[in-house]
Amino acid sequence: MNYEILYTFVIAISVLAITPGPDNIFVLMQSVVNGKKYGLAVVAGLMTGCLVHTTLVAFGMSAIIKQSELLFFVIKLFGALYLFFLAYKVFKSEASVNLSEDNLPKKSFGQLFKQGFVMNVLNPKVSIFFLAFFPGFLFSNTISNVLQFYILGFLFIIVSFIIFGSIAILSGSISDYLKKNSKVGVVLKWLQIIVFIGIGVFVLFSEK
Question: How crowded is residue 127: how many other Cβ atoms within 10 Å of its Cβ?
Answer without folding.
Answer: 16
